[in-house]
Amino acid sequence: MKNMLTTISNALCRITGRNVGAQTVSELLIDLSEYVNVTSLATPTLAQTLRQPPKPPPVGPRAPAAAQLVSAQTDRLDGPGTSVVVSRSFADFTSQATFDIKKCDVHRLEEAPPLKAELTRDQGLQYYRVMQTVRRMELKADQLYKQKIIRGFCHLYDGQEACAVGIEAAINPSDHLITAYRAHGYTYTRGIAVKEILAELTGRKGGVAKGKGGSMHMYAPHFYGGNGIVGAQVPLGAGIALACQYQGNNQVCVSLYGDGAANQGQLFEAFNMAALWKLPCVFVCENNKYGMGTSVERASASTDYYKRGDYIPGIRVDGMDVLCVREATRFAADHCRSGKGPIIMELQTYRYHGHSMSDPGVSYRTRDEIQEVRSKSDPITMLKERMLSNNMASVEEFKEIDVAIRKEVEEAAQFATSDPEPPLEELCNHLFSNDLPLEVRGTNPWVQLKSVS
Amino acid sequence: MTVSVDVRFRRSDWLKPPDLRRVPAFSPAEDRLNMAASVRCFLRSGKNAVSSLGLRGIHKSSAAAAQMMVRDALNQAMDEELERDERVFLLGEEVAQYDGAYKVSRGLWKKYGDKRIMDTPITEMGFTGIAVGAAMAGLRPICEFMTFNFSMQAIDQVINSAAKTYYMSAGRQSVPIVFRGPNGASAGVGAQHSQCFAAWYASCPGLKVVSPWSAEDAKGLLKSAIRDDNPVVFLENELMYGVPFEMSEESQSKDFTIPIGKAKVERQGTHVTLATHSRYVSFCLDAAAVLAKEGIECEVINLRTIRPLDVECIETSVMKTNHLVTVEGGWPQFGVGAEICARIMEGPAFNYLDAPATRVTGVDIPMPYAKILEDNSLPQIKDIIFSIKKTLNV
């Protein structure tokens, strides 16, 4: 009973901005009654209050009044530019908050994405969970690569998590997405389990492509990889958008590329046709400032990537803020869905690792620069701090999530290192779709291998 | 999987089950060491077996003074040619400030600066066209593709703008350009990064296509390619970059060139001719060493140039050995081996064959990623040995 009293009075303090909580139940009830502006109720007797738990503040027609009461007190609350809405539950935490997000520069657009984003507690925890999973998964891949358990190419996504998570938060699973080779994060957000991703990196039969694709060639429903040739995925994305338009299914395609690929000719060919035919394609440039070892200034005559579509409208977005990415993507997707044609989104982001695992990443940029981004703009830290300072979750909760994710990634790595390699029988399969089995020449004329669809 | 295999060929070698207790080890450093060791082995045993065929002007008794990796030989070739002729320049992705994606152009930007060593954006079609245009206007560009897989984006410029122009202009307009970069399979880079383009480029008249193996090949042939007034496609191999070779004294001269269009007999033999190029020369020499213990003497021909093919060298050899096995990493259909077999059939050597020629090639599939699958997608030494024995019917 005392606990409940303390809990409720603490909650009331946070809501109303008072410093001193109710010490007795009757005080509490007086506070509550003030809060809900009840006039006719008599002060309950002590006996009554002892017999039953205090009534929750009535909702419904009273709620707007309560909200007004609350909003008048916002200057007493923590965090600049936030307002708090009371939830129906007794949870200790604020269940929803609105945050200011950075203004997006626009090109050829009358409107822009909103300057405020609403975030519920559940959403916040979800975004945190997904971003942290991607982060830990990529770091695990780094570890496995250094142990030579992963080989070949490995392009890591840590630092850019807000892009993948923000985009996924704004589109539907039935929408489409295609990206280049820095694809592990998107493979996860598009629905593939960590263990299948890691097992693909280690080349095992439990991998999402049965070990045949590797890091750059992972696929999922409505996720078209994972593409090794710089820029080639963009016309593909426009083609997927064409299919959406053709089938009239109100879906959009998000077609991603990097600042290095932004100079590719085939992009401009795709832009032209997408604009001409008003394809529902969101072209997204993930500008992480370096195309392999070449900084944007050394590669592009114009680094305003959101304007490079010329006649295609563009938005420039803070890619380190998951809420900013989400709002901009929503805006962009709505633009496409309304039949206005394609749109370009430039996400300004940063990768902590080098271009790939064979690039230390410090010959063309300073360690100071990397450190600065890590300390000032890390997407996961930013979200966590926002939620903590608005009392949307506790430090312990985040720790619990971290522990759970660590366990998940560890188990996935365990699977990825113990699962067997694909059997040799698989070697020649999947040459053709829906075709009769055929014989495939091996390394010499006496070896004919079997291939099934 | 149905495998028609000679029963004398040990099945255990072919289908070894994966060891689940041990993670598959992949050690490029180890691989390089092993390869280097076998090459050194060959060099020690085979130096006196080097034939004079194709080795114009090189003394048999020359003492090899230095060891050099293929990467450094390429670097030296470019350095010497950049110094010799100021019309020569290098362009490509990451060739300048990054020192080259595979460090082949290390130090060149520091030495020659922005004008001669140019970093390009990731736009193959564009910069290849620019390079060809520069060649047309009197410069001598070296156009680097980070791998030849990316040259597919630019292949129109290579074929239509570079290869055919001298012909179309009836000799008015030459295109002195070198397209170079790593070709073929690497290690675990997947289907889009492992293709061999030797056959594709070699089918085009107007192009020269060169495929060096050793460091000496690399240096001599690259210098020839740069000095050649025609478009040359120079196919390197990433896995060979770090392999050291002994360099003869002649090869250390700044004017050392190896003529394009001449093959080299790396090992003399009497029983079978192995015609091969690039990395597979190493494999063939290893296979030959193994078979020598069984009394089978293989003649190993390092093709060095794919187009124009040194058919005469192969014919001479086949007329001596009566058996031919071609070995390559590329796909079988319409490939280098297929061309060699066709040319042998059309020439005098056909009558000297005691058995149909055999092609050893990559498996006819896109390159898988998983190590066990990748290993079984390319010719291994045991496949070469097997094919030789089948051809010889032993």
UniProtKB/TrEMBL annotation, chain A:
The keyword Transit peptide applies. The keyword tRNA processing does not apply. CDD domains: TPP_E1_PDC_ADC_BCADC. Gene3D superfamilies: 3.40.50.970. It catalyses: N(6)-[(R)-lipoyl]-L-lysyl-[protein] + pyruvate + H(+) = N(6)-[(R)-S(8)-acetyldihydrolipoyl]-L-lysyl-[protein] + CO2. It comes from the Eukaryota. Its cofactor is thiamine diphosphate; Mg(2+). Keywords: Carbohydrate metabolism, Glucose metabolism, Magnesium, Metal-binding, Mitochondrion, Oxidoreductase, Phosphoprotein, Pyruvate, Thiamine pyrophosphate, Transit peptide. It is found in: Mitochondrion matrix. One of its GO terms (cellular component) is mitochondrial matrix. Its EC number is 1.2.4.1. Residues 131-424 form the Dehydrogenase E1 component domain. InterPro entries: DH_E1 (IPR001017), PDH_E1_Alpha_Subunit (IPR050642), Pyrv_DH_E1_asu_subgrp-y (IPR017597), THDP-binding (IPR029061). One of its GO terms (biological process) is pyruvate decarboxylation to acetyl-CoA. GO terms for molecular function: metal ion binding; pyruvate dehydrogenase (acetyl-transferring) activity. PANTHER family: PYRUVATE DEHYDROGENASE E1 COMPONENT SUBUNIT ALPHA, PYRUVATE DEHYDROGENASE E1 COMPONENT, ALPHA SUBUNIT BACTERIAL AND ORGANELLAR. The pyruvate dehydrogenase complex catalyzes the overall conversion of pyruvate to acetyl-CoA and CO(2), and thereby links the glycolytic pathway to the tricarboxylic cycle. This is Pyruvate dehydrogenase E1 component subunit alpha. It comes from Cyclopterus lumpus (Lumpsucker). The lineage of its organism: Eukaryota, Metazoa, Chordata, Craniata, Vertebrata.
UniProtKB/TrEMBL annotation, chain B:
It comes from the Eukaryota. Its cofactor is thiamine diphosphate. Residues 68-243 form the Transketolase-like pyrimidine-binding domain. It is an enzyme of class 1 (oxidoreductase). Keywords: Carbohydrate metabolism, Glucose metabolism, Metal-binding, Mitochondrion, Oxidoreductase, Potassium, Pyruvate, Thiamine pyrophosphate, Transit peptide. GO terms for molecular function: metal ion binding; pyruvate dehydrogenase (acetyl-transferring) activity. It is found in: Mitochondrion. The pyruvate dehydrogenase complex catalyzes the overall conversion of pyruvate to acetyl-CoA and CO2. The pyruvate dehydrogenase complex catalyzes the overall conversion of pyruvate to acetyl-CoA and CO(2), and thereby links the glycolytic pathway to the tricarboxylic cycle. NCBIfam families: PRK09212.1, PRK11892.1. Heterotetramer of two PDHA1 and two PDHB subunits. The heterotetramer interacts with DLAT, and is part of the multimeric pyruvate dehydrogenase complex that contains multiple copies of pyruvate dehydrogenase (E1), dihydrolipoamide acetyltransferase (DLAT, E2) and lipoamide dehydrogenase (DLD, E3). These subunits are bound to an inner core composed of about 48 DLAT and 12 PDHX molecules. Interacts with DLAT. This is Pyruvate dehydrogenase E1 component subunit beta.
